[in-house]
Amino acid sequence: MSAYTVHQGQLPGLFRLWAKLYKVHVPVQTAPGFYDFAPWEPDTEIAWDYDLTVNPLKRHLLPPREDLVVFDTRTYEARGVFQAPQQLLFGVHPYDLRAIAQLDQLMELGSPDRNYRRRRENTVIFALDPLRVAPDAFWSTLGAGRADIGFDLYWTKIGPAMFFVEVGTARGEELLLAAGEVERAGAAQHEAARRTREDTRRRADGHGLKFPWQELPRVMAKAWDAGIWREKSSMCLACGSCNLVCPTCYCFDMREELDESLGKGRRWRQWDACMLPAFAQVAGGHNFRGKHLDRYRHRYFRKGKYIFDLIGEPGCVGCGRCIKACTARIANPLAVFNRLWEEYA
Amino acid sequence: MTDAANPYLPLAATVVDVVDETPAIKTLRMTLDDPQARAAFTYRPGQVVQLSVYGVGEATFVLNSTPTRPEFLQCSVMRAGEVTEALHGLRAGDQVGLRGPLGNAFPLDALRGRDVLLVAGGIGMAPLRTLLLYMLDTRADFGAIRLIYGARGPRDMAYAAELDQWADAPGVELTLTVDAPDPGWTHRTGLIPDVLRELSPPARGAVAVTCGPPIMIRFTVQALRELGFADTDIVTTLERRMKCGIGLCGRCNIGPRYVCVDGPVFTLAELGELPPEL
Amino acid sequence: MTDKPKIAFFDFAGCEGDQLQVANLEEKLLDLLEHVELVSFREVMTGHADDYDIAFVEGSITRPEDEERVRGIRARAKILVALGACAHIGGVNCMKNFMDEAVYREHVYGHKARSYPTGPARPVSAVVPVDAAVPGCPIDANEFLRVTKQLLLGMRPTLPEYPVCVECKMAGNVCRYERGGLCLGIITRGGCGACCVTEGAQCWGCRGLAPGANLDAARYVMQDRAGFSRTQVQDLMRMYLGHTTAPL
Known about the structure:
The complex is a heterotrimer.
Chain A: E1 3-7, H1 11-21, E2 23-31, E3 34-39, E4 65-72, E5 78-80, E6 87-92, H2 94-106, H3 114-121, E7 123-128, E8 153-159, E9 162-167, H4 170-176, E10 183-184, H5 187-205, H6 216-220, H7 228-233, H8 241-244, E11 252-258, E12 264-271, H9 292-311, H10 321-325, H11 333-344
Chain B: E1 11-20, E2 25-32, H1 35-40, E3 48-53, E4 57-62, E5 73-78, H2 82-88, E6 95-102, H3 108-111, E7 115-121, H4 125-137, E8 145-151, H5 163-168, E9 172-178, E10 188-189, H6 192-199, E11 206-211, H7 214-226, E12 234-237, E13 253-254, E14 257-258, H8 259-262, E15 265-267, H9 268-272
Parallel strand pairs in B: 7-8, 7-11, 8-9, 9-10, 11-12
Antiparallel strand pairs in B: 1-2, 1-6, 2-5, 3-4, 3-6, 12-15, 13-14
Helix pairs in contact in B: 6-7
Chain C: E1 6-11, H1 17-23, H2 27-33, E2 37-40, E3 54-58, H3 64-76, E4 79-83, H4 84-89, H5 101-109, E5 132-134, H6 141-152, H7 165-170, H8 195-198, H9 215-225, H10 230-240
Parallel strand pairs in C: 1-2, 1-3, 3-4, 4-5
């Protein structure tokens, strides 16, 4: 795979060019200690050393609310709605890359979701190796510290003003070379990138699962009646925050509304959450997961076992966002999985 | 990309007939408006569709017509919420949106060549109706057909106009039962599992298919096991609220399965491998 | 209904801010008015009729004559909708319920206090059955439209049952608690798009408690985790949620 060396000075030109073709999103500091992806502007300061963004990138692929169908109540004509902006996500950490790759897989499992697929096809992804590790992160021990697929370019900062850029796709390479010649990476840059990654990984490995992630479904299979479910869930606010900030949670509700003419309307999907009490309720009122405990357990089983059973990897990439987002401090896949390992391994 | 390939896009259908089955159940007969879509529409007994009343919403119903009689598509709607209420308000000539067919179907291959015991409670007769009619139309492929159909009272029994026909069909043994009989009732009185035990149909060489309210299924399954039916030979359907219908939105998720794709038909053996969230 | 349904607006103790929200809908309101007949709406018209199908009632019930009047409205209306926090949950008026009656009457009416009997402020539903609600202080105009359209379609309007956090996360906000703040979004019924947090403020609970809100957990979060005092939490809860069990 080819790799290039890019200097800081080349970036403004490249970004200006990319921004003509795509809506470019980059990591920025939004407040001291808080980072998020924001649209790139010529004066945007990219947070090269961000540890974690408040929001995962799924909103760019599966927006919080997305129209699916418009219809006419008088003729019963209906039409699919597709919005798929050309976008470039720059600076995606590998765990978020893994999450997107997982969404790609899961959204293809049923009848392919064309709304998702169109957005995905119009999305360029430039990955970025993390330089810092968020306090709650445990992605390294989930095998999500490095991704081999799912990026067009993969950037590693190897000096104060120098980047090692690995090519993932022809589209990525084309975009990298679009503003003029770029130097090919030599052995020294390859080595510098390796050292940077090694350095990050060493720090990341210190905090995480106490067992190989491949063991997760086996442990979960024994943990249906574990005490931790009741213990943790009694303080659950049923607010869905853990689901909504999760880069791999993708459940959605479908709703519709007529316009004021009452003759036309639209049906859309919007983010939903299995931690909300109404999620598993059916017509007539029966609820298949009526208690906090049922829902709390379901979420961890889905992350640790159900998704694993479907695609061979856990439905958690270890970003730690749910741990931060849970005001009651009960959402914590790392603590839950480690505890179950101790009890049921 | 053609709209036809968009799984979220409903097809327009027109209601051609409405049957008042019971105070709570109406049956809608529909045909797809677009002749091409009508010709292309195929389904297997047990599959479901999403019916839309635009502006109100979408809900899931089993197609209880049979693909062997393609004149129309039929769904029976029990009043339970906004969408079913709106569907009850439809008359012949009104339109609906229809997505599907969705989900799996009854395991016809496993049923062929064997006796089939159908046990239906209330609206649970709807999915069994499609299976029954399909078997009647391909009668030689199946052994004896026994149908036990129970409802709260005689007035709550859907498909009343068809029951005589079913009883007279070749090789069909029909038993009707209600919890609360009225003076004219000439059939059995009693709960379905009790009637099942009393009749004690042979389990050997037979497959049982049971649909109905969750509580009825629970006790029926108990009775079926007592009669010697193995879990692999007991087939049932799961009720879950479906939204997307294509295995994504998570509403009907149970364990690694999605009822809208992997179901609604499951054997008891398959259900045994799922988390106990039934 | 062969004729267009007749709609009327009424106000009790409140600021009429919710009716103003409706009036501000302008174009959309005009579109909607194609389907209804407006028989009483002080914000945009004069005149009044006592014949109506849907009554939107704003404000809380606090004087003896309020009770009588709202019973009359209930008797005449086929559908009664509580409009805004005061009508829906009692709202800010209920703050006085935690004060001594003589004190607030003196404060409001001065030496004439004796001629103006008032009682505890209550939501409309404490006096007469309410068919639907448009929550909020003020209401969300789009939610008003949705509820009204659903009523016109013969549906029973439903409100989101999840807390404000859901829409706050959809909006991509940083949690107030992560910034050391206090916020009632964790127990307040969603549907507002978390507009206050999105605009940099906090949630004050104006849409009422989310059904099944876990108050024990909320107190743990606000007091034990975030470190706010019992009084601070109680003051915040009494601002809008005075009529519920939350502030007790």
